[in-house]
Write a structure and sequence with these properties.
With 621 residues, the chain is an alpha/beta fold. It has 15 helices and 30 strands. Helix 6 crosses helix 12.
C-alpha cells in the first residue's frame, strides 16, 4: 500500500513538473532563468506630511543660470526643456537673454547652462569671463553645437577640453561608454530618428567621454563629455537634439556630469498599461490569427494572447492597468448611447481583476473627449458638442462598470488615442469623482489636435499626471532610448500596449504574434535585469508614488565625506538617485542604499529615505 502511494506521489510530482514546463513554454518560447518577483506592497502615501523637526533647514537648492536666445525658436525649445529637467533635479533656474550677459555675475550661480547655438552672433562680451568663472570653480554646460565657429569659440574651446576640431559630422548612431544615466553604459542606439549633426573634435586625454556619435561610414566623434578646467568643470552635449522632450533625461544626465556627487528624488515605478482592455474588440474576426492559429479573434485573445501576457507578467511580478471601453460605437449624443453587456468583456475584466491588476477608464466609447477640430480629420472621430455630453458618456461608463464589476472604483483614466481637450479633462473630473491619475503621453511629436502631452507632475487640482513614455510589443531603438531617458530623470518605466497590436500592420510591423511576443519578452527581461529595483505598480499606485516624489523638498548638505539631508513635506518613503564617484554607506536605519550602475567607481545608487532626516557617509571607492 505504501509502495503504491509512493508511486502515485512520484507520478503526481512528475505531472506537476511537466505542467510547469508547459506553463513557461509557449509558441516555442521558453522563459529561462526567471524567478518570479514577490508582489510589491502598495505605495504608502501619508495623508499629511510627517511633522518631525528637520535637522537641515537651510535652503541648499543649487542655482543655475540658463543663457538663451529668446528670438530663436530652437533656443526657446532648449531653454524650456532644460528648465523642466532642472526642476526635477531640484535645481532652481533663472533664464537670461544671451545678449545681456554683461549684466550678470556668474559667481551668483552654481552653474551656467548655455541653451543657444548663437554665441558668435549674440554674445556681446567675450566668453573669456565665462571661462574664467569655470577656472575659478564654476560649472558650465553647453547643450548644443555652435551655429558657427569664430572668435568666441576660439577663445573658449581649449578650456572645454578640445584639442582640435574639424568639420561637422552627420551621425545616426549613439553609443554610451559610461552611465550618463542609470543602465546606459554599453548601449548603442541607431537609426534615422537619431540623425543629427555634431562637431568633429579631438579631446584632451583627461576628458571624460560619456557617449560617442558615429556616422554610417564608421567615423565618430565625442557626443557628450566633461572636462575639469582649473577648479571648475565644463560639460558638452555636442548635438542639436536637446530641445526635444525625448532628450530631457539625456539633458539631465549632462547636468549631472558637472558634479562629483548629485542626489535627486525619483518616482521609482514600473507601470504597464493595456489600452482597450476589456473592450468589445474580441468579437471581431481576423485573417491574421485565423491563418496562424486557426482561431477566431475571440479564441486567440482567450487562448493565446491573454495567457501569454499573464505569463510574462507573473514571471516578473508585474501588474497591468487595463483601460475599460464599453463599446466601439461612435455616438456622441447621450440620448442615443446604448449598451448590451458582453460576456467576453465580463470574462476578461474579471480575469484582469482576479490577477491583481487595476481597471481604469478609457471611455464609454472610443471617441476622444474633444470638440470640433480636436482630432485629425483622417482619424474619423466624431466631435462632442459640449462638456455636458462628454460628462454624460463617462457617467454611463461608470454605471456600466458598477453593474459588471461592482468591486471596481475608477481611479485612473487614459484618453482614447491620447487626445483630450481642456473641456474633456473637465468632464473626466466631473464624471469620475474618485479619479486620481490621468495618463496621456510624454513625447510631443507635433501631431495636430488636442494631444494630451504630460510631464510627470501633480496638477493644481490634485490629479497625478503620469504619462506613458513608450508603446508597442516590439520597441525599436527610439522607443528603447526614450524609456532609458525617462528612467534616468524620473525613475519611471511607463509603457502601453493594445491587445490588437498584432492585427495592426503599423503597430505589428508585419510580425506574427510569436515574433511580437518574443520581442516583448526580451525587452521585459532587459528592463527587469537592468533595473531590478523598480517597483511594479498599478496606475493608481504609481500616481501615489509620484505624489510622494513631487512634493518632496530635499535639503541636502553635500560634503567631501558625507551627505546630511532632511526631506520637507515627507509623505512616505522617498526614492532618490545618488550619483557619486565615492562609495556611499548608511549611518543609521533612516535610509537604504543600493548600487544600480554596473561595476565599480563612478555610478548611480538608489537611496530609499525612510524618514525625514538621514545621513550618508562617503568613502573612497
Amino acid at each position: 500500500m505504501n509502495r503504491d502511494r509512493k508511486k502515485l506521489t512520484a507520478l503526481l510530482c512528475l505531472c506537476v513538473a511537466f505542467a510547469v514546463v508547459i506553463l513557461i513554454s509557449n509558441n516555442g518560447l521558453t522563459l529561462q532563468g526567471l524567478v518570479r518577483r514577490p508582489a510589491v506592497q502598495a505605495v504608502t502615501l501619508l495623508e499629511e506630511p510627517v511633522t518631525a523637526a528637520l535637522q537641515v533647514t537651510q535652503d541648499t537648492t543649487p542655482r543655475a543660470l540658463v543663457l538663451y536666445s529668446p528670438g530663436r525658436e530652437d533656443s526657446l525649445g532648449y531653454e524650456k526643456n532644460i528648465r523642466l529637467a532642472l526642476e526635477h533635479l531640484r535645481i532652481r533656474a533663472d533664464s537670461l537673454d544671451l545678449t545681456r550677459t554683461q549684466s550678470v555675475s556668474y559667481t551668483d550661480y552654481d552653474m551656467v547652462i548655455l541653451a543657444t547655438a548663437y554665441w558668435e552672433d549674440e554674445m556681446t562680451e567675450s566668453c573669456a569671463r565665462l571661462m574664467n568663472y569655470v577656472e575659478e570653480g564654476g560649472k558650465l554646460l553647453l547643450t548644443t553645437v555652435p551655429e558657427s565657429l569664430g572668435a568666441q569659440f576660439d577663445t573658449g574651446y581649449r578650456r572645454m577640453g578640445i584639442v582640435d576640431f574639424g568639420d561637422y559630422l552627420t551621425y545616426d548612431t549613439i553609443s554610451f561608454e559610461q552611465d550618463l544615466l542609470p543602465g546606459m553604459a554599453g548601449r548603442t542606439f541607431s537609426g534615422e530618428t537619431f540623425s543629427d549633426v555634431a562637431l568633429s573634435v579631438t579631446l584632451e586625454d583627461s576628458a571624460c567621454v560619456y557617449a560617442w556619435a558615429q556616422d554610417a561610414a564608421g567615423r565618430r566623434t565625442p557626443l557628450i563629455w566633461s572636462y575639469d578646467c582649473g577648479r571648475g568643470r565644463v560639460a558638452v552635449f555636442n548635438s542639436t537634439s536637446g530641445k526635444g522632450d525625448f532628450w530631457r533625461g539625456i539633458v539631465a544626465g549632462c547636468v549631472n556630469t558637472l558634479s562629483d556627487t548629485v542626489m535627486y528624488p525619483v518616482v521609482n515605478a514600473l507601470c504597464l498599461f493595456i489600452d482597450d482592455f476589456p473592450s468589445p474588440q474580441y468579437e471581431s474576426e481576423s485573417d491574421v490569427v485565423r491563418d496562424e492559429y486557426n482561431r477566431s479573434a475571440k479564441e486567440f485573445y482567450r487562448d493565446i494572447w491573454w495567457p501569454d501576457m499573464l505569463q510574462i507578467a507573473k514571471a516578473y511580478g508585474d501588474v497591468y492597468t487595463g483601460l475599460f471601453v464599453a463599446t466601439y460605437n461612435d455616438e456622441t449624443d447621450p440620448a442615443r448611447q446604448t449598451y448590451t453587456e458582453s460576456a467576453t468583456e465580463l470574462y476578461f475584466g474579471n480575469s484582469l481583476l482576479k490577477n491583481g491588476c487595476e481597471m481604469g477608464a478609457h471611455g464609454y466609447n472610443h471617441q476622444p473627449l474633444t470638440g470640433a477640430g480636436g482630432t485629425p480629420a483622417d482619424m474619423h472621430y466624431q466631435p462632442w458638442a459640449n462638456v455636458a455630453d462628454m460628462t454624460a458618456s463617462l457617467t454611463r461608463l461608470k454605471e456600466i462598470t458598477g453593474q459588471m464589476f461592482p468591486a471596481v472604483t475608477l481611479r485612473s483614466y487614459v484618453p482614447p488615442s491620447n487626445y483630450l481637450s481642456a473641456e474633456g479633462r473637465q468632464a473626466v473630473r466631473q464624471a469620475l469623482p474618485d479619479l486620481e491619475v490621468i495618463s496621456g503621453i510624454y513625447t510631443n511629436e507635433e501631431e495636430e489636435g488636442d494631444v494630451y502631452v504630460q510631464d510627470f507632475t501633480v496638477a493644481e487640482d490634485g490629479i497625478a499626471e503620469f504619462p506613458r513614455v513608450t508603446a508597442g510589443m516590439a520597441p525599436d531603438d527610439y522607443e528603447q532610448m526614450s524609456a532609458l531617458s525617462a528612467l534616468g530623470l524620473y525613475g519611471t518605466f511607463s509603457h502601453f500596449i493594445h491587445p490588437d497590436d498584432v492585427f495592426d500592420p503599423d503597430r505589428s510591423g508585419g510580425k506574427s504574434w510569436e515574433e511580437l511576443y518574443r520581442a516583448y519578452c526580451a525587452w521585459m527581461k532587459d528592463i527587469h535585469t537592468s533595473y531590478p529595483w523598480l517597483r511594479s505598480l498599478t496606475a493608481t499606485e504609481a500616481g501615489n508614488a509620484l505624489r510622494i516624489c513631487d512634493v518632496a523638498d530635499p535639503h541636502l548638505i553635500v560634503a567631501q565625506d558625507e551627505i546630511r539631508g532632511s526631506v520637507e513635506n515627507f509623505l512616505g518613503p522617498v526614492s532618490f538617485y545618488l550619483k557619486t564617484n565615492l562609495t556611499p554607506k548608511t549611518t543609521d536605519e533612516n535610509c537604504t542604499i543600493r548600487r544600480i550602475s554596473a561595476g565599480k567607481g563612478m555610478g548611480y545608487y538608489l537611496v530609499t529615505v525612510e524618514s525625514p532626516n538621514f545621513s550618508i557617509r562617503l568613502v573612497a571607492a
